[in-house]
Amino acid sequence: MTNAISGFAAIDMALQRMAGILAVQRFADIAVGGRVPSKFRLHSMGLTQADAARISDQMQLYGSFVDGWFGKKRVRRINIEKWENIELRDKFIVAVDKWSRRAVQRNDIGNLSLWMTTWYGRVIVHFRSFVAVAWNKQLLYGIAAADRETFAAYSLASLF
Fold it and tell me: How far apart are alpha carbons 113 and 93 in whole angstroms?
């Protein structure tokens, strides 16, 4: 109710949609010759290297692209309804959902550690749950990934 009244539910939904669009564009970049994410990142989305390659093949086959800035291709439509492999299509949808949920910071009880949902945990992190979720969801995940994307994201965040 608080999310609806404050307007944060609409903001959260818009951020989730933008993150989903960026995730689809990232897979489109991979399809036109971009670099595949690390095994750790693919695994966190429920994909393997082979799945990423098959997704790229389907996007090249059925996707429509337009010229973007600096000579990069921008995805217009992925035409996911035409993909032949239904299991791969479902994996792709789940992967984009997982990617966008990780990218957007939400104050959601499902993102908390188990000890934070007990009565004493709620008392300890009463006003700090957003920070605690960011610690688990962003910092610890980035340290575990330990790849170029994490370094770039942390460097840009520190710069700005």
Answer: 26
